[in-house]
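Hi R.,

Here's the chain you asked about this morning:
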Amino acid sequence: MTQPVTVQPGGEQQWMAAPAAIPGCPPGLEYLTQIDQLLVHQQVELFEAFTGIEMNNKYKIKNSLGQQVYFAYEETDICMRMMCGNQRSFTIHVTDNNQQEVMRVHRDFKCCAGCCWCAGCCDCCAFELYVEAPVGQQIGIVRQLGSGWKAHYSVMNGQRDEIFQIWGPCCAWSGPCCMCDVDFDILGTDGSTKVGSVTRQYAGFVQECFTKASNFSMTFPQDLDVKLKATLFGAAMLIDFMYFEHSDNQ
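And here is the predicted structure, written out as tokens:
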């Protein structure tokens, strides 16, 4: 069935129409009951591209038809962005087409975290990301796990029960000459049953050459709990910051 849409002021972007409220579903996440794929397009910041000064990230989140579902924006102070780069703490606010915040994603700063070899040793060496919906109510956690080489994450519900694992490739490269997509597989807790993926998509030569703006797609079962779908969006944000926010990727 074709979904009705609304048009953003200015007529430039079609928004997916808000579905009716669903009992037990966090307000604003009803959209996610109707989709099995999300497209996350980071907006290009011209000021950042020309000056090299790190700006807060902004994202348009769309369904498979290109209809915008959410808008997300980072909140981080300039000192944290300039001094800590992709290691920085960040908060990402996710709003609907009424500009109401429906979800919040947060990662704390950890000066020693990020190395896949050390992530399994202690908490200070592993990044964790927290997803809230509504704001103030934790619904999911994504934790970096230790591994010999590949990116490895645990996707948990709000009670820290592991639901999925995410495994990345041996080399997660990006740039104008790396014209292939980079897949991170979403697996069941058995470590082998694939249920979806988080894919960093090649964005074209110009965008890859002059910016750090990334495009992601996420696939998952349509009947998956919306709280877990929201947590997988958080996983995409963690992957983006850890692997594709490096200035030397350009």
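One quick note: The mean pLDDT is 85.

Cheers,
M.
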